[in-house]
Amino acid sequence: MKRIVQSVVTGLVIGFAASTARADLTPEDLWQTMRDGYAQSGMDAQVEGTTRTPDALVVTGATLSWAATSWGGQVEIPLMRFRDLGDGRVELTLADQIDAAFWSLRGKVKGATSQVRLVQSGLRVTASGVPGDLTLDFVAPEMTAALSAPKLIGRDVPARATIRLAGGAGQSRVTTSGVTIKDTSATFDSATFDIATPGGAQRDFKAKGTLNGVTLTTGIQTPAGSLPDTVEAMLKAGFRAEYRLQFASGNITADLFGGKETTTVQAGLAEGEIASRVAPDGSRVLLASGPSRAVIQVPSLPVPAEIGLDGVRIALAGPMLPAPRAAPFELGTTLDKVTFSEGLWAMADPSQTLPHDPMSLHLDLTGTLRLIGRALGGGKVTATRPPVEVETASLNALKLSAVGVDVAGSGTARFLNDGPEPRPVGTADVEITGANVLLDRLVAMQLMSQEQATGLRLGLALFTVPKGADGVTSHIEADQGGDVRVNGQVLYRFPNP
Fold first, then answer.
1. CA distance 74 to 44
2. What backbone phi and psi angles, to 5 degrees, belong to 185?
3. What pLDDT, on the 0 to 100 scale, is given for residue 234?
4. DSSP string, 298-366
5. What's the pLDDT at 176?
6. Mean pLDDT, to the nearest integer, of 45-52?
7. Which residues form the signal peptide (predicted)?
8. How large is the C-alpha radius of gyration of the chain?
9. Which residues face 246 on adjacent strands?
10. C-beta of residue 38 within 8 angstroms of C-beta of residue 17
11. What is the pLDDT of residues 207-227, one digit of tens each?
12. Rounded CA separation 309/338 (Å)
């Protein structure tokens, strides 16, 4: 949603660097430069009229529209005012309300249409610079964007969303040399959002919250020419974008409606970060937050469930385009010191048999993979060949600590993809501490019979080697012939090609 706000506002001046301009800008220079930039990007700009005053150019009834094979869009700006500041700079102010629409296309028939209304107060953009290198300083005291969409993530679920940005200021630098590069940095005192699926949706929900002390940095490279029809085509043409949103604190409240019951979630967030990168050589997504607390009220539970954690970090990266060679991928997850309230423990463990220590998870997996089919949809994948081939994988770290049990693991492998299913060739080592004590505790809690615990101990003993008082280790090896051995014993055999 925040990207939509930024696109509607700063995207209005994306054409600044697309044509030659003088160092001392005039209102006419700036408006013509913008129109040239829109045309170069495949957009059509129409206006109802222009009026010249001694120090300003006023454009009324501007409509920006564009269309690809499967989608289109239109932005309506009732008023744009270009004021000559007398020092080589031009100030741009906009109408208080701007409307935009985006729709899918099947032939010439419009499909699902999403509406965006931007309401702002006090937005000012000041343009300065030299040809091919322009700087846009902007002040945005208050902006509110309201989105209504008939679909949510491709499903026929109507949704609405509102986001309000307050106390904003920042700068964009736009350069051009065959491609347009726009780098933006901005700060906002707060960002407030409200999202909901209205009545009639299969599963209604609503959520609202506030992020304080927001910093947004973006970098966008747009190739010259009309907008391609698909994201894959845009990437092949050279499009790339990076976004990074950081915040100092925040809070979220969500209601999930299921039948006659409503589950409520209230969460408080410490400093956090949301970052993404999309480029021809791959994409990356990062979610991170510091100490956070959440209270979940479920009608079927007699007490609220309080959950806390000292930190969370989730990272995912990989290629986006099919290629003859494998590219790096990454999967990382860290949940640091997850705690549950004693009221919740009292229901799960009334006898206090289990340790109530904080739980933690750390996973670090990297490797290389190759896309065979299209990662972004629309392509055909044969049943005999998966769309992704993993060539190498490295489990750099696996650490899990919960209810008195510690699990640690690491390993590396390469994969042979010449058979009916991928065959790993490599080794891994796993160490488990506290498993026997946990089985004793589960028996004491009457969650497991003694016979079941004995069976699990025997199964564990078949594929582990004792270590210390209550620890076991396993060495796993997969060979070229397809055999998977655990401490020397064959556990599984992959079919050969």
1. 9
2. -135, 135
3. 82
4. -TTSSS-EEEEESEEEEEEEE--S--SS-EEEEEEEEEEEEEE-HHHHHHH-TT--S--PPEEEEEEEE
5. 77
6. 95
7. 1-23
8. 28
9. 215, 273
10. no
11. 999 999 999 999 999 887 656
12. 4
What kind and span of H or E run contains 51?
strand 49-52
Which of residues 383 and 53 earns the better pLDDT score?
53
| Residues of the domain holding 117 | 1-238
Characterize 318-357 residue by residue with b for buried, 16 or more Cβ atoms within 10 angstroms of its Cβ, and e for exposed. bbbbeeeebbebbebebbbebbbbeebeeeebeeeebbbe
User: Does residue 326 lie within any of the structural domains?
Assistant: no
Rounded CA separation 221/173 (Å): 12
Amino acid code (one letter) for 172? S
Is the model more confident about 115 or about 41? 115
Asked whether residue 319 is domain-assigned, the answer is no
Phi, psi of 41, deg, nearest 5? -95, 5
- Whose tokens are 């094979």? That residue is 69
As for how many domains the chain has, the answer is: 1
In contact, 486 and 475? CB cutoff 8 Å? yes
Task: From residue 252, give the alpha-carbon distance in Å to each of 83, 310, 348.
Answer: 41, 17, 27
Please report whether residue 212 resides in a domain. yes
